[in-house]
Amino acid sequence: MTKQKQAAVAGATGLIGTYLCHRLGKSDAYDKVWGVVRREVTLPGGVTPLIVDWEQIESLPLEAPLDEAFCCLGTTIKKAGSKTAFRKVDYDYVLAFARWAYERGCRRFFVVTAMGADKQSVFFYNRVKGEVEEALAQIGFDSLYIFRPSLLLGERHESRPAEQLSARLSSFFRPLIPLRYRPVEAERVAWAMYHCAQNAQKGKFIIENDQILKLSS
Q1: What angle do CA 202, 185, 187 make, to 5 degrees?
Q2: Each residue of 101-158: pLDDT tens digit?
Q3: Which of 52, 65, 77, 152 is found 20 to 30 A from 125 (Cα to Cα)?
Q4: CA of 146: how far to CAs of 36, 76, 197, in Å?
């Protein structure tokens, strides 16, 4: 019998993380799934909240070794309030979670960054995403899967008028947009992450938007 896995999800209450938790919590492949969150919340069935102070995550205890970790952390510069605050979430906290997971036995890591991630980019957002990808590759995971979705579609807890307008326009022109740039439902990103976790191979893999759409079709 195949050993059931232990997994943790950071960003468990976010757009992608919520869908991912639903899938992991229902899966027979997992014996235990933790949702790493900042406060007590109700998570999908089969997922146990693990409350964290992101500034002190290294001291967060865990009752069993991890097999896999999924990182869906992310914010916007507008929501964070500044570039410094944005970088703290999308770089510092992502790396802190990855290192915490690695120290607890995790060797397969799955993370969402963004289409256009590039450490040399002139755009701050894309540059931070590229820098965190490079830093994650240095940790030592046997398997590192990086997902780069385009504009995400789905119901968010907070209002993002510009994204909502872009989503509506993109939906209208969707058939004309190449797969690599086509908006993608958050649920499909979650499904692609789950699929890759069940078929993980050793190495570093960049899953671009067109691959996400194909994997989840």
Answers
A1: 60
A2: 999 999 999 999 999 999 999 999 999 999 999 999 999 999 999 999 999 997 755 5
A3: 52
A4: 19, 19, 12
CA 196 to CA 215: how far, in whole Å?
A: 9
Three state DSSP letters for the chain: CCCCEEEEEECCCCHHHHHHHHHHHHCCCEEEEEEEECCCCCCCCCEEEEECCHHHHHHCCCCCCCCEEEECCCCCHHHHCCHHHHHHHHHHHHHHHHHHHHHCCCCEEEEECCCCCCCCCCCHHHHHHHHHHHHHHCCCCCEEEEEECCCEECCCCCCCHHHHHHHHHHHHHHHHCCCCCCCEEHHHHHHHHHHHHHCCCCEEEEEEHHHHHHHCC
Both tokens of 148, joined, read: 């780069």
- Cα–Cα distance, 173 to 175 (Å, whole number): 6
Q: Please give the model's pTM, rounded to 2 decimal places.
A: 0.90
pLDDT, tens digit (0-9, with 9 covering 90-100), for 2-56:
569 999 999 999 999 999 999 999 999 999 999 999 999 999 999 999 999 999 9
